[in-house]
């Protein structure tokens, strides 16, 4: 995309403080999806928009919790809401609703029927937690396993040790896919998912057609492969959040939560521009 005066105006972020803050248009999309005030107990004292902006700030800059800017709510408050929304499935629910909304605005059915699966190995930090060594990529860390629709919207994900091969980690993704997109039946994948091992593992989970998109044996250097480039582009989109430059999290749950936050950030901006 060429940067013209029109595109610059479309993508500029005239926010009061930081470019990671949501605009009024973006907040109008996210706010109805967040929980309302509790009808019992003490009234809520914190502004959820400030909390959401703080989480977006950490996702965008990649800073540690302790380095959260002082003009946000206290870090203990922001962290409390992050853990609550991570544990109660709210981030998964928001992502599901926004994907359906984006597909509807693109003139597609709200439920996808085809998807693309792939994984990405990333290094972990000294925080500990689950990790492994990916001999193919020579990376010690974790593997982000995601499923997207054919537009590149994130449908399901699973994070596990990098030592687990794609065909061994895929069944967990398909288990979540069955819940998030029950109409999706056709999956495009690379050669790492070929063979009877994955097909046998999926027998007790559901029925899918897995189409292997192979790289040509005569190709030299980079080759753009049909369908597979879609999920690779999604990884690039997610990588714009510096929190995902490395897996800094101790728990798998937090690692998956930040991936969801990064995708919600992208798709919210996409919807607000339309």
Describe this structure in words.
It is built from nine helices and six strands. With about 270 residues, it is α/β, with parallel strands linked by helices. The protein has a domain at about 90-215 and about 225-270: Ribonuclease H-like superfamily/Ribonuclease H (Nucleotidyltransferase, domain 5, 2-Layer Sandwich), CATH 3.30.420. Helix 3 packs across helix 4 (about 75-85), helix 3 packs across helix 9 and helix 5 (about 90-105) runs parallel beside helix 9 (about 250-270). The mean pLDDT is about 90.
- Distinct helical segment count: 9
CATH architecture of the domain at 90-215 and 225-272: 2-Layer Sandwich
Assign the CATH topology of the domain at 90-215 and 225-272: Nucleotidyltransferase, domain 5
Secondary structure: helix percent: 40-55%
| CATH class descriptor name of the domain at 90-215 and 225-272 | Alpha Beta
Instruction: State Rg.
Output: 19 Å
Dominant shape = globular
User: CATH H-level name of the domain at 90-215 and 225-272... which superfamily?
Assistant: Ribonuclease H-like superfamily/Ribonuclease H
Query: What distance lies between the first and last C-alpha atoms, to the nearest angstrom?
Result: 17 Å
Estimated share of beta-strand residues: 5-15%
Structure summarized in a few sentences:
This protein is of the alpha/beta class and 274 residues long. The protein has a domain at 90-215 and 225-272: Nucleotidyltransferase, domain 5. The chain has helices at 5-11, 24-30, 48-61, 75-87, 90-105, 166-180, 196-201, 228-238, 252-272; strands spanning 114-123, 132-134, 139-149, 154-161, 186-189, 209-212.
